[in-house]
Amino acid sequence: MSDxxxxxxxxxxxxxxxxxxxxxxxxARHPSVSSHEGRYEMREIVNAxxxxxxxxxQWDYLPHDLPPSGAVKYYFYAWRDDGTDQVIHDLLRWQVxxxxxxxxxxxxxxxxxxxxxxxxxxxxxxxxxxAAKKVPGRKRGLAVDVLGLVIAVVVLAASAHxxxxxxxxxxxVAAETDTVQKALVDQGFKKTVVAHGEQVGIEVxxxxxxxxxxxxxxxxxxxVVEQTNGILMLHRRLVRDYEHRPASAESRVYxxxxxxxxxxxxxxxxxxxxx
Length: 275
Prior knowledge:
43% of the residues lie in helices and 14% in strands. By secondary structure, it is of the alpha/beta class. It is globular, with a radius of gyration of 19 Å. The two termini are 23 Å apart.
């Protein structure tokens, strides 16, 4: 890495070592036309992505001592389109689960959605209005394990019903692993999701709220997905949906959670407040 003054979001040597083999292998499969190594270190490209995830800055406002936005965009889009972002994410997730004494893939997942305002400039055809929450923009659906680690993410217009998210998330979960046997959902998900779960071999249980409860009351096991949503909100790029394509919004989730997992694996903490 260059001699520039480090940012708090920069990868430590230990965190870089976790993902460097994936990036190096990708680079070997995608040599430049002129066969040179490229002007920018891959570690600095990832540092720029993590800086943007943490601070929420626009592409053109990336600091001048990081690679230029054009170069960072190129790799962000390339890794989004060929799934490298998810490969890194899944590799770290398996390590976190095994470190906790669990098998690489879960047997139970929890599904939930979160509505987000869309930023100006986001194509209107990819957004909508959540009628229940009165939020115009997009909705993010997550499937997480009991540790709160992301198994699948789907981003659609906020007007999409939770049934659309439920079926899409179940399809992704079933495609990723054959170990998941059960999914917990809230009452926003209907019989359509339960029936779709039967088709893909996943039992869907609707966790009903106690009528006597008032205000926000965490539900057993289902609370982990709320915790994950809270962690994502600490990455300012994810507080509002700034991405032109839903696929980019999904990629941002993978990068944010990958950063969190890499810190957990290396015992690295970060200050989320006052910055």
